[in-house]
Amino acid sequence: MEAAITNNYQRFRLYNKDFLKYDLVSGLVVFLVAIPLCLGIAIASGAPLLSGIISGILGGLVVGLLSGSQVSVSGPAAGMATIVVTTIAELGGFNGFLAALIVAGGIQILIGSLKAGFIADYVPSNVVQGLLCAIGLLLIIKQLPLAFTLSSNIHELQTHLLETTEGFTFLPFQELMNHVNNGAIIISLISFFVLYYFDKTRQIILKEIPGPIVVVILGILINEGFVLYGSPLAQNSPQLVNIPKLMGFEHLLQQVTVHDLSSWQNPKVYFYGFIIAIIASLETLLNVKAAEKLDKKRRYYSKDHELMAQGVGNLLAGFIGGLPITSVIVRTSVNIQAGAKTKLATILHGLFILLAIRYLPEVLNKIPLCSLAAILIYTGYKLTKPEIYQKIYKQGMDRFIPFIVTLIVIIAFNLLAGILLGLMMSLFFILRSNSLARLDLVKEYYPGGVINRLILPQQISFLNKASLVAELETIPNNSQLIIDARSSSYIDKEILDLIQEFHEEKAPLKSISLNLIGFKKKYAIHNYMDFINVTTYDVQAALLPPQVLHILREGNQRFVHDVRIHRATKLDIQHTAKMQHPIAVVLGCIDSRVPVETIFDMTFGDLFITRIAGNVVNNDILAGIEYACDVVGAKLIVVLGHTRCGAIAAACDGVEKGHITELLAKIQPAIEAEKNITDDRTSQNHQFTKYVTELNVANTLQQIYEQSKILRNMIDNDEIGIVGSVYDVSSGKVHFRDFSPVIKLLKGDQMNHHLSEHLSKLIKQEAKYSAAQSAEATSEAK
């Protein structure tokens, strides 16, 4: 217990040292700004004057305490004024309105508990920025009369106290021209200078002093000087703050209005309660989003928690005679600009309102409204700096148009209309962008031919419908298509219906063979197989050796460029379980850096692989190749050497050890055939090992041709082809080449001549076939 007390005391000392002075000043500045706004909003809403004060107190003490935000300030909002006026008229008085406000508070608590605050995260940042800039402009426009003109009567003052109105009018500018207030001009200009100086100064001492407080104190002192000397520049009511005087808290309680119990029988109470809840929640979520953008520490918090806090505030406001409470961006921005560090500033502003209306109305009523107007105008300028417009304009019209539409409509009409139109414009550009953006449609080259694969994204909804339609329209007649949903975690009903329609109607009309894979059991549409894409007997039988070589070369290109075919492994296993029809047999090294199927982008049933250190030949290796070609029907023999081969290096260094000696002896003919390098014929000479690697491939080709009569006859009759290649372990590329010049360097007889002819012919045939394929692809593209 003692340790806990000590720990809390230390925390308080730390807070007191670092944050208290900032929160205290910020709470005081926001309180000074909030008082006239609370009064003005109450008057504009057609509600009792005290109702605005009550909501200001609740926004600070209750919502401020419950909120998770450290900077957001809540209270009565001018954006709700029209709704309040309408509700009071429809429900027969302020008492009926309070019942609707109780309903609204309960709905907000429910919305928050249902975790619906995520909606705020879907509001585009350019719409939020449009809201902020509009508020900034409205602050400037609506506060200009208070800063420079005389209010001829109390009604005029009440209008000016609003932070925003239902629509833009030229009244403020008319007031500037018709009722110039010289005293207010002097105080306002001094206030602007002080605010600008304190904002830009580099003097550490002055940076510790909040400019708004200096402005308020200077305003009081200057005006009291005018009054003392009887100057015509003096500001008098209604150019000063005008807080109603109360004789005590008992008097305050007597002024409270309570809801009418009979109102609960009126269905309209629930309808307008719902309307108030939705609009107040939307305004709160947007203002909270904007507050996060303004917060210099970029602190984020739960929107659901905020909605519940606002709901509690509105519930209490309905019971004790307040107005709808929302997060208010004007007061929030003032709070941040004044240097608030924690939410204690918000709580203090509510406490100050409560104490002030009881104990300090005379002092507060000495503050010139022009001083508060100057603070708000300067805050408005910061919210709507020209640099903001330039920055968003440079981001493109799809960002700028929703931003400027939001701003203009808020100024011309109201907050809700501006936000809704801004969101509609953003949605238009999102839909337009999604309709132009293409889904991943890739052509995959299988041994059996070209297959189109349409890969659905992780989340696909109606927003992607236009793109999906466009992709499906590009699929040619008499082709094969795979719609692959394995990466998708969500597919909405609109997309599923479209795919089902394509499967049942359009694909058959265009003779498109269609596979549907990866669709989860919960979907109405299920996996479907119209064709298999592993190598079949028909595919194997139809292929010629040059075509097989082309397929392997293309597969290696896909591997090198990291665009490998999207395999359905389980399906490939199922389709090859009973029978295999590989198109080639590859004799490679056991080196772990040469995964043969992977570097050729092949899968189950495509290749026979035989591996031995140094890709040399013995009787068992030959038996395997004979089985692959003569029995199973493979059409191509590939001898695959590779760079930095350990077996080649060991042979060049003359390693003799156990059974390794016998294996390395098979590489010796390649070493003996290498005549270019005379010095440093070791593994340290990379040029020497490069030549030996190529000669070793040629030697293996020669051994296969000479030692297997079965394979030699098949090669001579063009039933199969044989080719040499070297894999670069650094780049991943397989270099197929004509090894006939290298073969001539090896010892041999007339067989070498025949083998060289076959090697050269295959490379030329594959080049011709490849050129024909490229020309055909170009023609199709046109």
How would you describe this structure to a colleague?
By secondary structure, this protein is α/β, with parallel strands linked by helices. The chain is built from 35 helices and 13 strands. It has a five-stranded mixed β-sheet with strand order 10-9-11-12-13, sandwiched between helices. Strands 3-4-6-8 form a four-stranded mixed β-sheet. A hairpin with a 6-residue loop joins strand 12 (721-727) and strand 13 (734-737). The protein starts with a helix and ends with a helix.
What are the SSEs and their pairings?
Elements: H1 2-18, H2 20-44, H3 49-66, E1 74-76, H4 81-90, H5 94-113, H6 125-148, H7 154-160, H8 171-178, H9 182-200, H10 204-207, H11 211-228, H12 249-255, H13 267-294, H14 303-320, E2 325-327, H15 329-337, H16 344-359, H17 361-364, H18 369-383, H19 386-394, H20 397-412, H21 415-436, E3 440-446, E4 449-455, E5 459-460, H22 465-473, E6 480-484, E7 490-491, H23 493-509, E8 513-517, H24 537-542, H25 545-560, H26 569-576, E9 584-588, H27 596-599, E10 607-611, H28 619-632, E11 636-642, H29 646-652, H30 658-664, H31 668-673, H32 686-707, H33 709-716, E12 721-727, E13 734-737, H34 740-743, H35 750-781
Parallel strand pairs: 4-6, 5-7, 6-8, 9-10, 9-11, 11-12
Antiparallel strand pairs: 1-2, 3-4, 12-13
Helix pairs in contact: 2-3, 2-7, 2-15, 2-16, 3-14, 3-16, 4-5, 5-13, 5-14, 6-8, 6-13, 6-18, 6-20, 6-21, 9-11, 9-18, 11-18, 13-14, 13-15, 15-18, 19-20, 20-21, 22-23, 25-35, 32-33
Class inferred from helices and paired strands? alpha/beta
Proportion in helices = 55-70%
**Count the strands?**
13
The proportion of residues in beta strands is: 5-15%
- The main sheet orders its strands as 10-9-11-12-13
Instruction: Determine the number of helices (DSSP H or I, runs of at least 4 residues).
Output: 35
Q: For the CA atoms, what is the radius of gyration? A: 41 Å
- Tell me the distance between the termini: 82 Å
Poorly predicted parts: 160-168
Shape: elongated
Largest sheet: 5 strands, mixed
| Rounded mean pLDDT score | 81
